[in-house]
Amino acid sequence: MFAEERQQRIAERARTEGRVDVAALAADFAVTTETIRRDLTALERQGVVKKVHGGAIPLERIGYEPTVAARDTVQTAAKERIAAAALAEVPDEGAILLDAGTTTARIAQALPADRDLTVVTNDVLIASLLAAKPRLTVLIVGGKVRRRTMAAVDDWALRALAETYVDVAFMGANGISVERGLTTPDTGEAAVKRAMIGAARKTVVVADHTKAGNDCLARFGTLDQVDVLVTDTGLDDDLAADFEAADLKVVRA
């Protein structure tokens, strides 16, 4: 078994059981405890688990939310591929919405410079990046800016989105599962994300495979509200089949 495959199984077990034990994992995978500790270190760097004495717990189970800077250093190649694939959903003209996040930021970077588009976002960093593209009209949703994610949230954001309608919303998610739908650790961000989905004719979720099968504190959407999931080739075949059985189109970049 390759290390990446073993790490994916460890992450899935952590999310299912709420905790994993180094000794038990070493016995189950027939490897040394040192190998398991290296696996847990790799998963911690990816923002998937937090190492604790004798094992690890999934970050989402303790309500932990990595900063933008931390998230921007993990799954970078996958996020680049996801963003490139998501461009197929961008209309030639009209209006789109970019949710706050490191994957949606890569979509912003990759947006063609020759299209007349209106782009709505609640992400301060994405708005700044888009402002340099002269043919784009950039609308930033106001509100209280969360330093951890640089996303505008709360009542001002909700009121603006209530008066907004776009062709496509590109949404991020900390968790996506058949059972719980789309989830995120913060209730304020969940409310804004919910309003974004309601403001769009079409919803495209962009999320790397580590988010699949995961559930966080606050739900902001169900799978039947999503038209396309753009993820990466690390997505487990069984999970992909579960999503497709729920009538969700899955693109693995």
3D structure, described in words:
There is one protein chain. With 253 residues, this protein is an alpha/beta fold. It contains ten helices and 15 strands. It has helices spanning 3-17, 22-29, 33-45, 68-71, 76-86, 102-110, 124-130, 155-162, 187-198, 237-245; strands spanning 20-21, 49-52, 55-58, 93-98, 116-121, 137-140, 144-146, 151-153, 166-171, 175-177, 181-184, 200-206, 218-221, 228-231, 249-252. The strands form four sheets. The protein has a seven-stranded parallel β-sheet, sandwiched between helices. Strands 1-3-2 form a three-stranded antiparallel β-sheet. Strands 10-11-13 form a three-stranded antiparallel β-sheet.
Supply the key terms.
elongated; seven-stranded parallel beta sheet; 253 residues; 38% helix; three-stranded antiparallel beta sheet
Order of helices and strands: HEHHEEHHEHEHEEEHEEEHEEEHE
Distinct helical segment count = 10
As an assembly, this protein is single chain
The residue-averaged pLDDT reads: 91
Radius of gyration: 18 Å
Q: Give the strand content.
A: 25-35%
Strand order of the largest sheet: 6-5-4-9-12-14-15
Helix share bin: 25-40%
**What is the molecular shape?**
elongated
- Largest sheet, described in full? 7 strands, parallel
Class per helix and strand makeup: alpha/beta
- The end-to-end span amounts to 23 Å
How many distinct beta strands?
15
Low-pLDDT regions: none
